[in-house]
Amino acid sequence: MDNQLTVQELAALMKKAAGVTVDASELADRLDSGFDEFGLDSLGLLGIVGELENNHGLILPPDAERCRTPREFLDLVGSNVVAGA
Question: CA angle 26-28-52, nearest 5°?
Fold first, then answer.
């Protein structure tokens, strides 16, 4: 994975880390909808952040798990992600 998280990767992470299945094209069409509309809660988003940091070697900003929408998360991650050591 490069430092730019895609909608497809986010959809896969939602399933893997939080158990929430969402079609990537639906996610792309509804980027400004709240994560809660997809069935993802704050613990699920924290799981996604943990997956990115622990298994992909990325360091995310401390407020990454506070994002409310997929667009907000993708924008934050895309602009602030740092490759881990």
Answer: 110
Encoded tokens for 81: 């992600």
CB neighbours of residue 15 within 10 Å? 12
Burial class (CB in 10 A: 0-12, 13-18, 19+), 76: middle
- CB under 8 Å to 79, separation ≥6 — which residues? none
How many CB atoms are located within 10 Å of the residue 55 CB?
12
Average pLDDT, the chain: 88
* Coil, helix or strand at residue 6: coil
Mean pLDDT of 11-16: 96
Distance of alpha carbon 1 from alpha carbon 58, whole angstroms: 10
Asked if the model's pLDDT at residue 4 lies above 80, the reply is no
The burial of 79, by beta-carbon neighbours within 10 Å (0-12 exposed, 13-18 middle, 19 or more buried), is given as exposed
- Helix (H) or strand (E) holding 14, with range, is helix 7-18
